[in-house]
């Protein structure tokens, strides 16, 4: 394991993953993680690839799930079937009378003082239907204590979510920026100065493609995902044009 391939803030997670893999490799155990971010999944895959006799599967419940559990197993078990690791629930409520948003569902779950990593993706459809992916071993707790979203009473119905696809929805806006530098883009999104953005980045509040980023001069590309603490998640969707003065017109979507 070469730590120099990872950022310093990732060392603790990398060491933990390496321990998991060694347990599987030497003790022939099966390791099921909690839900991982796309960057954490990438780290797990990179480290597993260093071992010929260990493989990893990722399970998020939904099609194209963003957050997924890793199941690390000895290679000789790769063809075996394992118990369900992700359970799906439909959040039932009076959706004709009440509007519930993604942030409200997540806020009510985290208000139960649970580990965020026990909850996977939350899918809110245009019809008002809401689905949640949960770690299987945590299901009984959720059924017992997750009874409200805000002040609104809810009930949970266990459903098969494998046929449901996780699609990102964006509120699109047009921005005119002087360059594609990360600090310039973030300054436009935050409506802040570049010096304020620089300090915000130093505090570890900016993620680029799900990875903590402190290089303010990074040249952003279309498709990059920028997460700004307390501001939300954004994706660079398209470069529209260049103005006569050389400024760049880009379309950036904020995840809703």
From TrEMBL:
Q: Which SUPFAM superfamilies match?
A: Alpha-L RNA-binding motif
Domain RNA-binding S4, first and last residues per copy: 180-242
CDD domains hit by this protein:
S4
**What is the annotated signal peptide range for this record?**
none
Q: Which UniProt key words apply to this protein?
A: RNA-binding
Pfam families assigned to the protein according to its UniProt record, in alphabetical order: S4, YlmH_RBD
Name-wise, this protein is: RNA-binding protein
Q: Which organism is it from?
A: Turicibacter bilis
């Amino acid at each position: 394991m070469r730590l120099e391939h990872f950022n310093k803030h990732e060392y603790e997670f990398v060491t933990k993953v390496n321990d998991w893999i060694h347990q599987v490799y030497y003790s022939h155990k099966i390791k099921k993680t909690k839900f991982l971010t796309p960057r954490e999944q990438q780290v797990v895959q990179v480290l597993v690839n260093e071992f010929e006799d260990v493989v990893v599967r990722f399970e998020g419940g939904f099609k194209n799930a963003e957050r997924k559990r890793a199941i690390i197993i000895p290679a000789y078990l790769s063809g075996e079937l394992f118990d369900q690791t992700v359970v799906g629930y439909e959040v039932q409520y009076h959706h004709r009378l009440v509007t519930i948003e993604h942030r409200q569902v997540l806020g009510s779950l985290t208000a139960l003082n649970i580990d965020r990593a026990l909850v996977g993706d939350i899918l809110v459809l245009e019809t008002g239907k809401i689905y949640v992916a949960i770690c299987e071993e945590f299901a009984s707790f959720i059924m017992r204590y997750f009874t409200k979203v805000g002040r609104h009473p809810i009930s949970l119905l266990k459903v098969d979510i494998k046929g449901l696809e996780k699609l990102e929805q964006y509120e699109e806006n047009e921005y005119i920026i002087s360059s594609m530098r990360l600090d310039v883009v973030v300054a436009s999104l935050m409506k802040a100065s570049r010096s304020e953005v620089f300090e915000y980045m130093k505090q570890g509040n900016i993620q680029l493609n799900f990875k903590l980023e402190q290089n303010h001069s990074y040249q952003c590309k279309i498709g990059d995902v920028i997460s700004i603490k307390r501001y939300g998640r954004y994706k660079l969707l398209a470069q529209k044009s260049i103005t006569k003065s050389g400024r760049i017109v880009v379309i950036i979507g904020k995840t809703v």
